[in-house]
Amino acid sequence: MLMKKLALASALSAAFLVGCGSDDDNSSSSNDTPQNSTFTASKNADAQPIIWIGDFNNFDDAVALMLIAKDPRYTIELAVVEDSFNTVAHGANTVYNILEWLGNRDTQVIRGAYYAPEEVHYGANGTKAEGTAVTDSPALVGDIADYQLPNSNTNGRWNLERRNVMGINLYGQYVPGPWRDNGSTLYATDHLIPRAEQDNYHYNGNNGMSFKFELAEDMVLAELDSLGENVVVFNTGKLTTFARVLSKASPAQLNKIDKVIMMGGGFEGEIPFTEEFEREHNLGGNIFSHPSFGFASDFSTHQEFNILLDPLSAKVSFELLAENNIDSYLVPTNSTDLAKLEAHSIVDLAAPGATPEACYTSRLFQSIREFEGGDFPGFDGSPSGDFALDRVIRLWDIIAALVLLEPETLEMVVREGYVAVDQLDDGLENSEYRYDPISFDPMVGKTSFTEAGTGQPLNVVLGINSEKARLAMIERLRSSANAAVKGPSCD
Ligand SMILES: [Ca+2]
Ligand SMILES: [Ca+2]
């Protein structure tokens, strides 16, 4: 099954990629190249608007952002920074810096919804919370109370008030410290990306007292109102904000959505989580290193990270997308798990003629290798090797971006279906594992196909040609089209 618009997208893509690998003037930084403050990417007059809801918490988000920012067929109108395991401040700075670096100067950046519904219901440590709703307007289906805190706007700058999210999310609190640090700093390479200079591209912290409050979902809906009927919603974090958007949206607002692409989930027993791929475990998740599982190696859980961080909002989102007959693609671990960085990508990205963003990505991958190689305890014990580079790290959000940008290249295997999300069992607050919802309920967050559903089933991308995806990533980053005008040079 292929997307209706494949042929058109493919033709445009081929034209866009002409000139890849050419050794032109944009390929390195120098003193007489334009400054970021004047560089604006060239976008098509009929470019399709994107509302991107993501956690922007790691290398794959950053590279996905570069790929889409460069493509003239899309404009990123709104970026919503979801909580995950690092701070919204870090995520917002990554977004600001990469967007301005690549000449995307008009994107509004806001923080996502504050709390996953269950997170508030149980409290961060698994204790059931009572009577702590922030506002009482029921915004989610199924009478899920509204606990959201709003964004605030001071003097026209979005104040992304910071909650210290590290370790707070009910499900995310065990994420290892080094993983958080490395995501926050892009493995200590974020300083290589030129810092955004334009006035509205700065994280403002708790700046000012006269806050004008708005809820993230209301701002997304206002953005939908302002756009035509061809909006792409691209979701690469948990689905907290998107569930609230879908719950509150009017039919006219839902009509504005042309297509949804979400990275998330994992399906046990489907390729590559089958015996022939010789894993120790084939559960479909990408959460690892949790001591309670007692496994020495490999992904050993049912949970994919984005779904795990808010299983209830994932359930609500999948149901509402189907009920409203919205053309939706889910990109689970089945299609990302064979998509590895591979050490030779480091060399290929940095080959002569590299754009600043290709050179940067080479250094980012090299840094991942240096930071993670062999130091992470509990795996195969090899002293260096490609442990993180290829044992655990995947091109997760990068694959989702390529599903948008060049689906035909990926040779996607798509299955239509309704998707169920396992919810947290009752009793966490009274269990010996109240600090650890996964040990208490090892199935929570697991995705599976179900017969039960209403409306248009999701398109689940169960497989791709991962080598072609990796090569497409490299080719696009090296393309001179909309390449950065300053930044690292590998020449
Ligand atoms: Ca992500
Ligand atoms: Ca359960």
From TrEMBL:
Q: Does the keyword rRNA-binding apply?
A: no
Please state the span of the N-terminal signal peptide per the UniProt entry: 1-21
What PROSITE patterns does the record tag this protein with? PROKAR_LIPOPROTEIN
What keywords appear on the UniProt entry?
A: Glycosidase, Hydrolase, Signal
Recorded hits in InterPro entries, A to Z, give: Inosine/uridine_hydrolase_dom, IUNH, Ribo_hydro-like
MF terms (GO), sorted A to Z: purine nucleosidase activity
GO biological process annotations for this chain's record?
purine nucleoside catabolic process
A single Gene Ontology CC annotation of this entry is: cytosol
Cite a single Pfam family from the UniProt record.
IU_nuc_hydro
**Inosine/uridine-preferring nucleoside hydrolase domain: which residues?**
59-427
Name under which the protein is recorded: Inosine/uridine-preferring nucleoside hydrolase domain-containing protein
- In its UniProt entry, the species of origin is given as Bacterioplanes sanyensis
